[in-house]
């Protein structure tokens, strides 16, 4: 629990949702891929799930809080089993075994739990199990702390590696308007989406469905960008989430208005204007 | 309870907090719940809030949104937020007046069990309702409609990504519903209220976190339910600590009776229990009704089909070359077939499907195909469309393979 908790608390278990992944269709993912996509899309949520697992695991390290720890572990693992079965994840067997282990740990406290939660009677303290002495308990605690340190030491570099500095305009953009030589273009070889993800590259999905990668040079001060060293554009950002490009693409005068796609935009709102869902 | 013991003195802060909670919950939850069976009273209640909310928004809050009047009540809509702020303000005013008028009282030990009863009633009702619409999957459509499945992830609202992920696994949706209904059902009995409150708190904590992380527009309502569940569990925290942290003897919970006479005391609890049973039955029935509406009859070949191989006039058309090559075929309702072409445009046809002779006719008078399914998830079409011989091999998209 500690090991699996720490790699989610430091959210590296599920890869972050990257702009290039956003072009996939929902239905063409498998259930497992969809679940990963969902959790990867919110590192904060991933951290919370990690915190819950870690809490259960840490409480198991102290003899007195073993019952609470095993209950929290059982709740976490019941969820993990349901997810594994419901989303066809490969972890079905391993999480089921852990779930039964957690139930074994809960079992000696069952009588007290029934008194507390079902019958509302006085709950007697648990009899101390025959002690192994101090050292085994201390060893377990040290071992647990060691796993936390080891897990964190492994996860932090991965987190840094997975979140390289983001280039400007990082995200997926839908082409809202496109005019070539002053006329609205219906050419299937024209742009449908543009993705700024990897530094020095612009990935474009064409209307026909294929992808094209351009080498990208950006000059943020002069507000210009160059594709493949020959197509020059100036850019403007008239409002948040909108990017207007003006210039030459393959020798033709091109004007494009791009808008950030929903999942590439900041998305938290306390107040919801429900008309946005219409 | 046989022994009559003097209830302890409540501290000033506890008394004020109690007055606030009581006023707030009465104003915001209990009044509409009690008035809901009487149309006239409910309308007056709504008129009152409309007047207060419109005044407060113009005079004090100035939200940069339109107030939409169909999003009243406890809601994260602009109207809902102004109403919430007004409810807090009004409850504060009521608390101040009550605290002055009733300054000599040392405790609310007689009123407190009624507040708990009201909390159990409101929370159990909500948990059962939200559980029932998941047990009979009618909250998140499962599997999601093909129109949603054909969309790109980037074009989804984050809450819809969450919605359709849950919808992608009907057994998971049912399991979460069962967990919610269990929490609600346990709240119906006085003895198991603590367990029900703990299970509901765990459920609602997850719901609230999901709402925050995926921008689900019910943050304010789920926070209220979470606080209610926590309030119900809170008085038992010392007992929980005795059992789970200190391994000490824990006393049974000491609940003040609602009435002094034992039989009188039982009646409200029995009524709550009966209400709960009725709610379980009624909410499940409502969900079955919703379910019927949300899941109209499906095409026998239901699915989102990716076009793997497509040939026209005897020539294979590879991907990414011709804008009108088929990309996806959507078969949702029995009488229709939709094609999405490479360039993104959609074309709909009327469909007549004969499963016995394995023939489909696309109307009006567009073409005919014979089809066969060499494997369960594979569909091969062979025929004429708009005068061109067409042959296509379609594969069912992964997300609905396991759910259909």
Strand order of the largest sheet of chain B: 1-3-4-5-6-7-8-9
Largest interface, and how many residues on either side? A-B, 70 and 78 residues
Please tell me the overall pLDDT of chain A: 92
Please indicate the percent range of residues of chain A in DSSP E strands (runs of 2 or more). 15-25%
Number of spatially distinct domains of chain A: 2
The run of helices and strands of chain B is: HHHHHHHHHHHEEEEEEEEE
Return the structural class of chain A. Answer: alpha+beta
Radius of gyration of chain B: 29 Å
Number of domains of chain B: 2
Helical proportion of chain A, percent range: 25-40%
What secondary-structure arrangement, pairings included, does this model have?
The complex is a heterodimer of chains A (278) and B (404).
Chain A: H1 2-9, H2 31-41, H3 43-59, H4 66-86, H5 92-106, H6 110-118, H7 134-162, E1 171-180, E2 183-184, E3 191-196, E4 201-206, E5 211-219, E6 224-227, E7 231-236, E8 242-249, E9 252-260
Helix pairs in contact in A: 1-3, 1-7, 3-4, 4-5
Chain B: H1 12-35, H2 39-61, H3 78-101, H4 112-135, H5 146-149, H6 158-167, H7 170-186, H8 193-213, H9 219-233, H10 237-246, H11 262-294, E1 303-312, E2 315-316, E3 326-331, E4 336-341, E5 346-354, E6 359-363, E7 367-372, E8 378-385, E9 388-396
Antiparallel strand pairs in B: 1-2, 1-3, 1-9, 3-4, 4-5, 5-6, 6-7, 7-8, 8-9
Helix pairs in contact in B: 1-3, 1-4, 2-3, 4-7, 4-9, 4-11, 7-8, 8-9
